[in-house]
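Quick one - first record:
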Amino acid sequence: MAENISDRNGRALEFAIVNTLIKKIPNLALLGGTLADQQRDSVKFAALAEPQQTHFIDSAETIFTWLASKHTINSGKITLERLSDDAAKKGDVTDIRLVIAGKIVNLSVKHNHTALKHQRPTATATQGGFAKKSLEDIKYRADYKKITDAFLNSAAQLKNGAVEFSELKVIQADFIDTQLYAPMCKLVTDFLNLHVAQQPYAQQFFSFIVGMTDYHKIIVYSDKIDIHEFAAMPPAQSLKAMQVGNSYIHVRFSNGWVISMRLHTASSRIKGVSLKFDTQLLDVSTPIELSPMEI
């Protein structure tokens, strides 16, 4: 349920921003499926409580003011396109793309969270640049399956017929941490250090996590908006991964970026062992524009 609410709020926020830009920018042309996306997400926006709607509208006005302070938007044709989630899977994290006076302006919009990615550990090899069904991918997935199979066998011994992870935690609080998260994080950490540590794989993994294009990451909170400029990012020549505890992996890239990957279950049900990483930015030595704007 929480994930559905998050998706609804995120799309409603994108709708509010684009709707404001449509109203305020003359000669704005909508590309691709933007109009259809706006019509779809107008329903999500209308479903919000009135205070939330007002907050999103005010936030959109603030974002427009910031955009107008950086770009000339009163003359010439400007195009706008909302990008689908499929683009993010390929490394382009842009939600809203504008072309202003021939310059591309990419906006990645988040509501109340700073996550870079929510990637599946099953695809670590391909995320690092190895082709699907390559020898590295096949070996990695086989090792992945060994861990999940061992976990399921141990779970059956702990409580035969258990359906949800919560049932296992009641019997042994650290069972999932020690029997699933820890060995899975070790598998991912070892693979990154052995196969992805150098070029071209380090850069491929960096691009997958952070994004392959220059963009502004806009995070709308209840009391402010943070805007991070991820532009002219230096390439990652190498990386070093380190497991932290049972469920965290920290990855330090040679360009100064440090990310934290927290492993968690993507479903409450044991069947299928659905896992995801919640990947956050820990540190970066290259300049980032941080512009909190009170609303």
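second record:
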Amino acid sequence: MDRTSGYKYGSQRLGERRDAGAEWRRKVPLAAHAEWKVSADRADPVEVLIEQGKNRIAELLPVRHGRMKADAFAFMRGAAAVMAADLASGLSTGLRVQACGDCHLGNFGGYASPEGTPLFDVNDFDETLPAPFEWDVKRLAASLAVAGRVAKLPGRECRRLAHAATESYRRHLAELALLSPLHAWSSRIDLVAAMAEVDSDKVRKKIERRRAAVLAGAANHFGLVERKNGDWKIKDRPPLVRHLSHHELHAHKAFVSYAETLQEDRRVLLRRYHRRDVAFKTVGVGSVGTFCAIGLFVADDGSPLLLQVKEAQESVLAPFAGASDYANHGERVVVGQRMMQAATDIFLGWTQNRVDGRFFYVRRLKDSRLANLGALLREVLPYYAKLCGRTLARAHARAGDAVALSGYMGDDSEFDKAIAEFALAYADQTERDWRALLDAIKAGRISAEEQHAS
């Protein structure tokens, strides 16, 4: 039995696997995915955030709430735990994949493969866990509907965004189901080729300017590295990057422990760099309050390397989809990323043991600006919706049974329509929850500090 998807692969014929997917359609009809009803025992969304904050760094919680206050989409980015409970409250299929777990559109983006090829992929795996495939699809579709409303698009356009992402997901998964396992596993989404498909010169130019800025920032080490009097340091960029002495020892310990989990050849490469400095980093909306630091490593020739060590807590899906097979949540995140992502960072690894009671994983420092593209540029959203749907299909084809999933969704648009209907209904719910947050801040129930997201 495959531990991730729940399907036996060895002797099953393709037709049997497709029939297994179609059988689930009788248990959970496609039209059932359109439903969103508030259960009588639904938890107060603000209380969910308060409870989640008990396991985070208290001094950073006002930053988190301040970012979530900005608009309904910002709220949704930080409310993965709220939506996980909501998704689990309805009908779910038994078609499990290695799910992203926090599959909003801001968690997709561009990055360079180890060979330097610009790729587009799912780009955040803090909540990854085996779960019903439709939970990722619904969160993506709902995030597009919410982003469309924030961008002041009419209701029909918001519906169209959710429908386009789901249709793209369904169609691309059907294509991948026809490929050999090796070809489906090896498929990638080339960022440059994807940009060429945009039918608007204006949009293409905006995307290219954003991509160029990201590449320039990476080449310049994001402006975070300086050398004074022969001493290499990370520049303070308060409030996002700053030296906090009471956290630095834990960061140093995490980097030491992490090296043991790398492949031998990558440990050899890492040994050519020497750790010179660490600084605390305030991360994106959903992760604010978790421990995150940047490590500056410098080779003998003076070339810098920036690595990010990030705390990994239990996935928000775990109470509903089941506990991870990995007791170490850093390992859980790394395994999920390697499962879903077409090409992973060569420095991706985890700390073998707890550091200050926390689990961590490590990766190269990345720039989030390209990942935020869809949320920031109104005219990009229709294109971005299709691209994200296609990208999620590629990730799920690696992490689950594409044949069974395609068999379940079928060849017509019934699944697309149902998910789009859910997305609009859940966008309404997200706006209500966001207003509840604003009321809680106004009443002094929780504190919020005005900040800009990284």
